[in-house]
């Protein structure tokens, strides 16, 4: 099942699977009182758009281990490169025998099996050493509360720097 991130502006956080769209912005966001649902959920697929206005939507996406993300070029000449170079994709990915070169009209899906914080960018629309500037996004693969709250902690929260 593909679950689009509806109505999220650039810089907003979309909390995948058991959450909702959060009204958080860029640095230092505190997301509190997240309520999960008990039981294990099947892995989900989420969508990120590479937009003609040189943005990724949503700008930040939080998913669980085992979920996948489909990036789709919605217009323009783009690609997606993880800041740590763990993947470079566009019309296919460099680690799967393709080049990951920027292009138009592409879509690709990757599964993220373990928790991670993965900032990424478009090579064409982000200048070298321009951390925080240009066409950038962030994928956070995090373990979520499964509906059991820690009474001493007052519930579940996530800090997105």
Jot down its keywords.
single chain; mainly beta; eight-stranded mixed sheet; disordered N terminus
Describe the protein in words.
There is one protein chain. The protein is mainly beta and 161 residues long. Helix content is 0%, strand content 38%. The protein is globular and about 35 Å long. The N terminus is likely disordered.
Number of DSSP E strands:
15
Helix content: under 10%
Instruction: Describe the largest sheet.
Output: 8 strands, mixed
Shape call: globular
For the largest sheet, list the strands in their spatial order.
Answer: 3-2-7-14-13-9-10-11
Radius of gyration: 16 Å
The succession of helices and strands, N to C, reads EEEEEEEEEEEEEEE
Number of contiguous helices: 0
Summarize the entry for a quick read.
The chain is mostly beta strands and 161 residues long. The protein has strands at residues 2-3, 13-15, 21-22, 29-34, 45-50, 56-57, 60-63, 68-73, 80-82, 88-90, 92-93, 107-111, 116-121, 136-141, 156-160.
Chain-wise SSE layout:
Elements: E1 2-3, E2 13-15, E3 21-22, E4 29-34, E5 45-50, E6 56-57, E7 60-63, E8 68-73, E9 80-82, E10 88-90, E11 92-93, E12 107-111, E13 116-121, E14 136-141, E15 156-160
Parallel strand pairs: 1-5, 2-7, 5-8, 7-14
Antiparallel strand pairs: 2-3, 4-15, 5-6, 8-12, 9-10, 9-13, 10-11, 13-14
């Amino acid at each position: 099942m593909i679950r689009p991130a509806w109505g999220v502006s650039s810089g907003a956080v979309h909390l995948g699977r058991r959450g909702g769209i959060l009204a958080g912005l860029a640095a230092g966001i505190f997301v509190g009182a997240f309520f999960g649902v008990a039981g294990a959920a099947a892995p989900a697929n989420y969508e990120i758009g590479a937009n003609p206005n040189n943005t990724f939507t949503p700008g930040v996406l939080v998913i669980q281990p085992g979920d996948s993300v489909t990036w789709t070029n919605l217009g323009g000449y783009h690609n997606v490169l993880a800041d740590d170079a763990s993947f470079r994709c566009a019309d296919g990915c460099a680690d799967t025998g393709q080049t990951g070169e920027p292009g138009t009209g592409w879509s690709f899906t990757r599964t993220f099996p373990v928790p991670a914080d993965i900032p990424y960018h478009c090579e064409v629309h982000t200048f070298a050493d321009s951390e925080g500037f240009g066409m950038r996004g962030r994928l956070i693969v995090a373990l979520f509360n499964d509906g059991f709250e820690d009474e001493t902690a007052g519930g579940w929260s996530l800090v997105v720097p």
